[in-house]
């Protein structure tokens, strides 16, 4: 199941339910977590490839919650032994938890022989988290509402990315709160967000230079306030010729758009000077699939 980077994250006003209305352009990239579901009497979870033990193994784990929600929809108490092989950074702003939840939905649906439609799975996904429906869908799509109402966007070709990963994650609610605080302090009122026309054109034309110029993330100033070192990382990528540089989602992963696969390789070598964990990936890629 793929990770995502947000190409446009425009944050509107705070709603009564504690969420913000967004225009959120998701782009699935070729960093994958793998989830397997095996028969079992009860529901259990194990994580491989998370040496720091950052993924929770209790009921707060999004994949466990996904399996429970699916069983509840089917009106039965099913069991499964879930194993997650992590490659997506944890709490990195790349929707790794959402990818695992989407994978658990698809895997358990198959294991239990439920045969739910993509629409039904997407409804369950939206209750689990704002980014989970996109992890099912993949590709490139604009999310409105709190990000869960999706419309696929036309894209030509492939874009090449480099991601600089941080040692520790950032809390998504804390970043949204900081965004509200910064706006209030500046006397700014959040406008109603709209899909960026230059961004949509750049995607449709497969034009990385225009896409680099159109990338935007309203959460970025808040993420930088909470993790000052991100400003330096972004500058380094720009100095090394990245076509665009931005914090991915609520961070702290920084995303850099390269001109080509070769340029991505050069960029990752340069970025390793300021960040010890750097990975390359391309997008768009499909969403959750059974392999
Ligand atoms: O939906 P999800 O559980 O991923 O959201 C995590 C947190 O991020 C929410 O509790 C909220 O604080 C913030 N959020 C938001 N507006 C959104 C999506 C998330 O304020 N559209």
Automatic annotation (TrEMBL):
Its EC number is 2.7.1.148. Pathway: Isoprenoid biosynthesis; isopentenyl diphosphate biosynthesis via DXP pathway; isopentenyl diphosphate from 1-deoxy-D-xylulose 5-phosphate: step 3/6. Residues 200-275 form the GHMP kinase C-terminal domain. ATP binds at residues 89-99. Residues 61-139 form the GHMP kinase N-terminal domain. GO terms for molecular function: 4-(cytidine 5'-diphospho)-2-C-methyl-D-erythritol kinase activity; ATP binding. One of its GO terms (biological process) is terpenoid biosynthetic process. Keywords: ATP-binding, Isoprene biosynthesis, Kinase, Nucleotide-binding, Transferase. InterPro entries: GHMP_kinase_C_dom (IPR013750), GHMP_kinase_C_sf (IPR036554), GHMP_kinase_N_dom (IPR006204), IspE (IPR004424), Ribosomal_Su5_D2-typ_SF (IPR020568), Ribsml_uS5_D2-typ_fold_subgr (IPR014721). It catalyses: 4-CDP-2-C-methyl-D-erythritol + ATP = 4-CDP-2-C-methyl-D-erythritol 2-phosphate + ADP + H(+). It is an enzyme of class 2 (transferase). The active site is at 4, 131. Catalyzes the phosphorylation of the position 2 hydroxy group of 4-diphosphocytidyl-2C-methyl-D-erythritol. Belongs to the GHMP kinase family. IspE subfamily. This is 4-diphosphocytidyl-2-C-methyl-D-erythritol kinase. It comes from Acrocarpospora phusangensis. The lineage of its organism: Bacteria, Bacillati, Actinomycetota, Actinomycetes, Streptosporangiales. The gene is ispE.
């Amino acid at each position: 199941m793929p990770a995502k980077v947000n190409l446009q994250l425009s944050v509107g006003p705070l709603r009564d339910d504690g969420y913000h209305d967004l225009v959120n352009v998701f782009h699935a990239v070729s960093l994958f977590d793998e989830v397997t579901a095996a028969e079992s009497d009860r529901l259990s979870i194990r994580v491989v490839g998370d040496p720091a033990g950052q993924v929770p193994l209790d009921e707060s784990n999004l994949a466990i919650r996904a399996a429970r929600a699916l069983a509840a929809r089917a009106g039965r108490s099913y069991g499964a032994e879930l194993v997650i092989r992590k490659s997506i950074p944890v709490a990195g702003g790349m929707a790794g938890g959402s990818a695992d939840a989407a994978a658990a939905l698809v895997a358990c649906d198959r294991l239990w022989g439920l045969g739910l439609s993509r629409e039904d799975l997407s409804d369950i996904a939206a209750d689990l988290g704002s980014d989970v429906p996109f992890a099912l869908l993949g590709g490139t799509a604009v999310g409105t509402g709190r990000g869960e109402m999706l419309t696929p966007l036309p894209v030509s070709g492939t874009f090449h990315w480099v991601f600089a990963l941080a040692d520790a994650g950032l809390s998504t609610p804390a970043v949204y709160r900081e965004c509200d605080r910064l706006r209030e302090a500046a006397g700014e009122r959040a406008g109603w967000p709209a899909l960026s026309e230059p961004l949509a054109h750049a995607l449709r034309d497969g034009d990385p230079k225009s896409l680099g110029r159109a990338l935007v993330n309203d959460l970025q100033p808040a993420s930088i306030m909470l993790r000052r070192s991100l400003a330096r990382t972004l500058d380094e990528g720009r100095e090394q010729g990245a076509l665009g540089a931005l914090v991915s989602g609520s961070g702290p992963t920084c995303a850099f758009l390269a001109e080509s696969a070769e340029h991505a390789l050069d960029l990752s070598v340069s970025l390793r000077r300021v960040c010890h964990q750097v990975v390359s990936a391309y997008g768009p890629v499909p969403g959750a699939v059974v392999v």
